[in-house]
Amino acid sequence: MDLSKRLRKDFAAVAVSKEQVLHSMEVDPQAGPVGSLPANVLDYWHRALIADDLGGLQATDVRIPVTNFAGLAWPNFNLGFGKRRALALGILTERAAEARRKQQAQALEVSEDDAEGAQEADEPDDDPRIPMALVFHQTTSSSDEVQVTWPDPDKKPAPGAKKKRLKPDRLNIAFWFPFDLNDKNQICLPRDPNDCRPRVVRQWLEPQPLMAANDLPPAIGHFDCYRDELKLFFATLSQSANLSGYVDACFALFAHVQADGVETGMAPITGQWVAVPRQPGYATRALANIYEAIPNAPSIGALEQLIGAGRHRSAVQAGGMAAPQVTIRHVAMVDKATHLDKPDVNRGADPLNESQRRALHALGRLDEQVGVVAVSGPPGTGKTAMLRAMIANQWVLAAYDNREHCPVTFVCGATNQSVENVMGTFNGAVGRKHALARRWLDPTGKPLLGFTASAPSKAKGKTHRSKFTTLEIRQKQLRILGVGSSSLKQSYEDGVAAALALARHFEDAFRELPELFNALFSVEQKHQVSDATRFIYLMQKSASTTPTASTLCEHLNTLTQVLRSGLASAIERQADIDALIEPGELAARFPSEAWASSWAIDILADLRVAATPEARQAQQQKLLDVVWRPIIFQLAARYWETRWLASVIATPEPGSRKNALRHAAMLFPCIVATLHSAPRLLGEGRRPLFAFLDLLIIDEAGQAAPELGVPVLSLAKKAVVVGDMKQLSPVSSVTPEVDARQVQDRWADPSSLGALLVRGADSATGSIMKLAATGASFAEAMPDGRLRDGLLLREHYRCAESIINVCIDLLYHDHDRDAEGGLLGKELEPKVPNPLAGLFADAQLPLLEGEAEMQLRKRMKATFPLPPLGFYQTGGPNDEPCKGDSWSNPGEAKAIVDWLKEHGPRLAKWAARVEGHPEQPIGLEKLVAVVTPFRGQVEAIKRRVREELDPDDADLSERLTIGTVHTLQGAEKPVVLFSAVNRESRASRRTDTNHRERVFIDRDDGRLLNVAISRAQKSFIMFGHSDLFFSQQAMDPNNDLPSAVVGRCLAGVREPEHERLTCAPRVPACKLGPATLMVVESLHKAKIIQELVPGGTQVFGCGGHIRDLPGPGAISWRDGLKPHWQLSEREGSDLAASLRNTGSRLLQCTELVLGTDDDAQGEAIAWHMIQVLKEAPWFMHIQRVRRVRFHALTTLEMARSFEEGRCVQVEGATADERAGSACRALNMGLAYGAIAQRVLDNLIGSVYMRHGIVGGGRVKGPLLRVLAGHGDSPGLPGKRLGVAINLKVNDTLVPARLMVRRGSEAWRAWGSDRTESVHTLIDQLSDAVVSPTPCLLEHEDLLLAPAQSLGTNLVLQEAFRRFGWMPSSTMSTLQKLYEMREGQDEPESAPNDNGWAALDAQGRLFLTESGRRQADKVLNNHWLNTISANALLMAFDDALTHLSQLPDAGEADYLAFVHTWAAQFDDQCGAQPVAGPHAPTVDAQGAEVALFSLQPAVELNTWGAPAGSPSPAEAEQHDDDPAPGAQTHPVSDGGRSGAHGALVPLDISLEADNPKMAALTLRQRQLYDLMSKLMLASSLRDGQFQTVRRIYTLTWPAKPAVRQVEIGVEVITGKPGNYPGWFTLDPDGLHQHTRNWASAEMEAVLDEQSPRLQVIVQDHGIRTRSLLEPTVDHLLAWMQARGHGRPSTFGKHIDDLVRGNTSNARAEGTADE
């Protein structure tokens, strides 16, 4: 019968020994039955173990690449096609045949041995098949590709050499699916229908499991997508259950999972398909062997308690007195040295608390019976101390009971990391010189041999030998190797010398510990020890006789009996404590060095005041733990050492594996292994040692799947399963859906899946911890009579109270309550109060003398210089997570390393002073750990540490714990820095379907965060993004995502009902940075500024104006011109969300820095920012507001701006009062002017609209006028109207200007204030005759200067002149270049038919028909003509300038200004009083927008400072701030024009091959080159230019002269002179000077005797006298000269004219800003 059939028997039928069935303990009346599991559940676990085993596929030695993988489903597909493939396939066939032969032989052997047929033999297989798999092996290069691989049976080894085993590199498998080969080597479906499914290896799917960094590949898809695709796969297969449909569906699933990953930013992988045999891996085979052997096992030990029929759980009551027969069996505790490098100093043992003792008593109640004790141990509850006591207790009791064999205890972990954590269980328990605590086997000077030995896997053997003592199988014998094993060499090589050393140590103990040993041993026993020592010594000295092993063993047995007698005396003396209370009596009865310990002193004090028998018993037991039971343990250790030495002398080779393990256990009460490696030691050949272990402990059992722990449980009589189901859980490749199908197919009963889930026995979500907890022998009774799952450790001793309260808030609030809900007992009880706030400065104090120094150290020990809970609120522009192979966050990595640089050395020095050696700072690796969920962030932080800290602290990057959360599972550090990496969550609470929307740390219901937080002893500091932890979404009490809960804990958000449930009061954590929030305008410029500002400052880019008026009509006299501010429109971004996130950055922020542009609109933006943020409750935390004005992006300029910026204290009790005081940092005249301008612009737009011009306004009106020729005011000296002409020379048009002179006056440019005169002249110019000879000819050498001010407007003008770019396009390119922002060039927008203006071929703007109609309306409407006139607008501009010069202007100034100018601009001015600018933000319907309605009010953190004092972070940052009102530097209050310097890139010396240059777009490079030339040219000398000025007179022969007026045409020609100056560098720059001159080539033409000359009038229209050439560049200069807009909005105005955007009613107001 095959294995599957054998395991289908009901497990209740398995033979069980009588001792196991009879349970010695009386069942508690409250006992409950263990929930039953489906029959044959062992086969279910066995299949789960091997069905998805990856190790065998990765390491197989036969590999057949499949090039045409899609052909796998073809009817005649030949996997062995080709010579090499045929050879490989032949090996598989031969192995399968050999396996069948062995199976038949075993079946025959069974039938012969079992003549009566009690055992059913395996039936022969009628359909032999070879299980195979097609795997996808990832390759990154051709060298990774797999060739056909097989072990060559014909390849003979060299003579005398062993045949080498083929060990190819492990395959890197991402996904695979199974198939079978039949006896004809044809492809067919797997035999088991449940096996017919594709597998994506779990490590390749997000969320990726927490495991060793080098084991995690880059994710290619999502687990939830895989689950969904599996559902579709099964649906497809149900319709087409053939090989072709199966193979196609498998490939489709892989493709869809990868495609879904690509859509979310993951990279697809490349590789090859390889066919491999399916066989269990090395680690799995040992476990599978146990499953196969269980049906014939005589006993399955502790496993019977969990799966056997009729088992019960006994209730354990919390509190009350323990029975004497229970307490008397608690005999041992382990004392340890405080420092491992000083093993004999400050030795002591910590007493057990009530819950730890309850668990130990439960194990004692099992006595020799089989059973399981399950202990749920939240972090820091002393699981290790409890396990140490359990192990020691049974080891000592075996000696006391004089058992034949030493008990064997294995401690197993699910992972190598958990095993290494357990290896420290007995660290420090062995002394070096202490008479009782030292190993009596140890020669002096050798490495100490501890009480723990590792049983590593082959892969970990070398690593463990370098760190631990190991037990390893060498040549089928168990050997002790590794650290300390050399101390045993003498015992094997010279037994007499070893025995003599041991006996002398015994004698020394009588001498060094007389009080103790005289109390425990009689005088006669002392003489026995001396006699034995003397006899052994004589044996060593006797040269004539060879000592026999039996004689030597006799003397050792004498020592053994004496030790056991003393041990029994010590154990039995415990009962005397009930009658003793006085310290003197206790010390006399229990002589111990521990009476002077702080523990003993405190317990004695509590014992004297104990009022109840229960309290008295509790203190007595603790006292025994501290002063007496460690002595008992050390006596037992010496007893077992002596027995071990005698056994080695008597039987050097133990023989069987059982004996070998029992011998090893005499030295090592704790043997540590993984669940995979333990079975290798616990077997004789292939026969598992069922029920052999006296005690099995499974640690971190919450991380182990049930199928891993079950087989090992069958090897032990008793088991203690310890873990925490609220920490990291197992990661299964089996989805819940697949598991449900398998359960349904296996058991038709629909309740089977429910039974598995309740017990934690399912392979998808179960764990050995839950399986054990729901089936253990004991369960803790709750007040309402229900039973908890197992026992619970409640007292938390690791973390400071504030730290563990966060974990309680997250997970541990299943408290005991009475019927009314009153608290009876907490699930987790903090026992470590928060340390007092310490000072780093204490470490800097000079060394004091004697007692003074001791007092200082004592005071420092009660403190800590870092807060228990702290956070660094990342979220600056450079704190964005980025995705490579794994996620990382460079901003958080930088913040952490900056923190380490600043605080690390100080913390190390502080700790050294506390420890008493201030000249030797403690290594930072002993104090700090850095933890993060992502290995990408691990590498980023390590790289920064290596670059920035290693030069001053060699190899710190390797010594410092920097790893993913799993690296600290079960470990601890005084300080833990946690980097969350992710930015924001798309989910707002937990649901069953939104796993993908959650960030990584939220996908496991808080387990990961629980582990990370609970590793910190003194201080937990979170580096997390503000948008994730402190957003209003996170502050919502209904948001149950772990990150949100932690965020509310750190912020100190009070939720009374929730806190009543958790009993964990929330106190604000200490914000360690940044303490300053700086607001600037540009989102992208913020990234650059972030690198330039002082430390502790976070920069936020608001994107420009945050509030605006909706358009003409928004301002009305009905409500006194009250502004109805709406949030500005943002294309592609959510401004409301952005402002909410800004508000979240105000948490515990002490200073707000306003760094908007240094102009009127920048001041208005700063004012609006204050008005918006004042509504945020956290604005109350702001203590100062600083206005800074910078004009370049350099570190020096930024420092100057901070020093000279106006800084004011924020005062007031209400939001409005505080906002009012904050505005004192601004130039309120400038701000009020900009706000008033915006209000009036909206009003002017309404006026234009009322008069029929939609889209008109304060700037559009003058632009229409100037293009219509009426842009200048009448009465100017040069007149306001002009005519634009060219002179046609022969057939060439050259620039020319119309001139006039009267009488003997000099020639001047022609102009007129009368329209009729202009029209008359235009009509007459067509008949004018140009004199062929100039009346004036002047030669002049000019010095032309380069542009001296590289302003934005100059760049706009030059870009149009040189490239023909419209200003708005240039502005966009300029902004990207300024911010070093990458991106594609945006194409020029096409003109619109609705435009009011257009460009001609020469780049001149002219009005379209639509524009001319609008211009006529302006000119012909009296009121519009008035308000668009240049004189009025210039007066308005002057008034704004005057207002801007009043930095302390008040609201009255604003009201007066608006009232005055509203009457000037509005022809329907109302009589109502003008309203102020302060108004709430409203939506389009006028309803008030509540941006911060979900932001709760929270208190400020007060750690380390009296109430009202600044926090430590901001105190350090602002120590040198001026007092309120004081200013140490000149203050700049800005001006209306502000910093209109060009947006110059940071570096103007980039070479063509520079990487920065390569990143620029074509337009950016052109603009960069232009500005570089302009800037460099400005530093060169003026260039020489030679000009010739000619004026030709005009005559009208047919018309007589009316008056003495001459009209002429001026033409200027020129060429560079002898000294070109800057011309050589920037020849194109000459155009700004020569654009109205004729070329040098025209000089020769004009010198001809009779050139043909003719005047040509441009457009036959009137031109504005000051803008005869209305090109875009000239118009830009004209607008700037008259204050129409500002450089950043010039382009918008011109674009509105040309592109047809003037119909947008809101555009005018926005652009005019």
TrEMBL record:
<dbReference type="Pfam" id="PF13086">
    <property type="entry name" value="AAA_11"/>
</dbReference>
<dbReference type="Pfam" id="PF01751">
    <property type="entry name" value="Toprim"/>
</dbReference>
<dbReference type="InterPro" id="IPR050534">
    <property type="entry name" value="Coronavir_polyprotein_1ab"/>
</dbReference>
<feature type="domain" description="Toprim">
    <location>
        <begin position="1075"/>
        <end position="1194"/>
    </location>
</feature>
<dbReference type="InterPro" id="IPR047187">
    <property type="entry name" value="SF1_C_Upf1"/>
</dbReference>
<keyword id="KW-0347">Helicase</keyword>
<comment type="similarity">
    <text>Belongs to the DNA2/NAM7 helicase family.</text>
</comment>
<dbReference type="InterPro" id="IPR041679">
    <property type="entry name" value="DNA2/NAM7-like_C"/>
</dbReference>
<feature type="compositionally biased region" description="Acidic residues">
    <location>
        <begin position="110"/>
        <end position="126"/>
    </location>
</feature>
<protein>
    <submittedName>
        <fullName>DNA topoisomerase</fullName>
    </submittedName>
</protein>
<dbReference type="InterPro" id="IPR023405">
    <property type="entry name" value="Topo_IA_core_domain"/>
</dbReference>
<feature type="compositionally biased region" description="Polar residues">
    <location>
        <begin position="137"/>
        <end position="146"/>
    </location>
</feature>
<dbReference type="InterPro" id="IPR027417">
    <property type="entry name" value="P-loop_NTPase"/>
</dbReference>
<dbReference type="InterPro" id="IPR006171">
    <property type="entry name" value="TOPRIM_dom"/>
</dbReference>
<dbReference type="InterPro" id="IPR041677">
    <property type="entry name" value="DNA2/NAM7_AAA_11"/>
</dbReference>
<dbReference type="Pfam" id="PF13087">
    <property type="entry name" value="AAA_12"/>
</dbReference>
<feature type="compositionally biased region" description="Low complexity">
    <location>
        <begin position="1504"/>
        <end position="1514"/>
    </location>
</feature>
<keyword id="KW-0067">ATP-binding</keyword>
<keyword id="KW-0378">Hydrolase</keyword>
<dbReference type="InterPro" id="IPR013497">
    <property type="entry name" value="Topo_IA_cen"/>
</dbReference>
<keyword id="KW-0547">Nucleotide-binding</keyword>
<feature type="region of interest" description="Disordered">
    <location>
        <begin position="1502"/>
        <end position="1538"/>
    </location>
</feature>
<feature type="region of interest" description="Disordered">
    <location>
        <begin position="103"/>
        <end position="164"/>
    </location>
</feature>
